[in-house]
Fold this protein.
Amino acid sequence: MDERTRRERAWQRAALAGDADAWLALYDDAFAALDTYVLWRCGGLRDLADDISQDVWLTAVRRLAAFDPARAPFLAWLRGIAAGLLRNRFRLRARRDRLRPPGAAAAAAPAADAEAERRERALRVARTLADLPERYEAVLRARYLEGRAVADMAADQGETAKAVESVLSRARQAFRDAYGGDTP
Amino acid sequence: MSDDITLPPAPEPDPLAELLAPPTGPDPVALRRRLREQTVRLLRRRRLWRYLAVAAAVAAAFLLGLLLPRPGARPPAPAPETTSRPDQPPAPEKGPAPADAPSAVALEWRAFDNTDASLYRQAGERYLREDGDPLAAARCYRQSLDAAGPDALAVTADDDWLLMAIKDARQREKHDAKPF
């Protein structure tokens, strides 16, 4: 068992026994990285990211017993919760939009100013990332959010650089297809 | 001399770099503080609920134990007169039992084998006096009264506080159960 697993398991057990300090150790350790990730997944929309972050943390407290440090780090577990929440949110919204009569959708559309346009674009990015397969999302995150080089990602995953490059280019293509025709 | 130098082709700009660029902005200090408080509160509340659930389970198990029939209970035997017979031997002296006297447990087993009210009573007295075990004493006193029948419910001067209390409770039960 490595140091990270041991530390997170100890914090998890203490937090489950009601130790607030242990919980805060887990919280403080992961908060900034999770916030950056959620904000990225939300296309930079702060209000949406705050909503999702809140849901992620409250879910994490409720389901802390289900977290297994041997399988993944705490941050990865939180990222999984966030991804699930975003997917559900966009599916629900899409279902609601389909049920709404066409006239109502047009009436509800915001004014076409720059801010509304920026917001719409951010939502499309968020929706697109939510629709991508997990593996594609992971390589895009490593490349664009974490700024990692292909060789570095390959070493991390125990694969060849060529294989990672191939997954990355398929992920980019999938993103473009899902995002729509006007990708920059 | 020509200045033409062939440069390597510039890398193509990544079309997704703009859309998927890492977000920038100030740290969400207020959000961090708010979520910190919310999660700690939720953690404490969940711990409280867990304790309450355990306490409720223990209480339920205890009540269930009270309601279930005891394995040693037998139907009341015909009542031998133990307390009010004129030729009854004097009550044993109170005080520490001799070293070779049978233990309270041994007395209870003998009483159980013979359904003997007086042995049950002796076992109860010893549980209470020597072992300081009122629960075991109450069990033996109840068996004693069951075995002795209704006449044994009269309180006598030899009864200790626990036996008196059990007799009194049984008399009340009996009285309250009479139809008006």
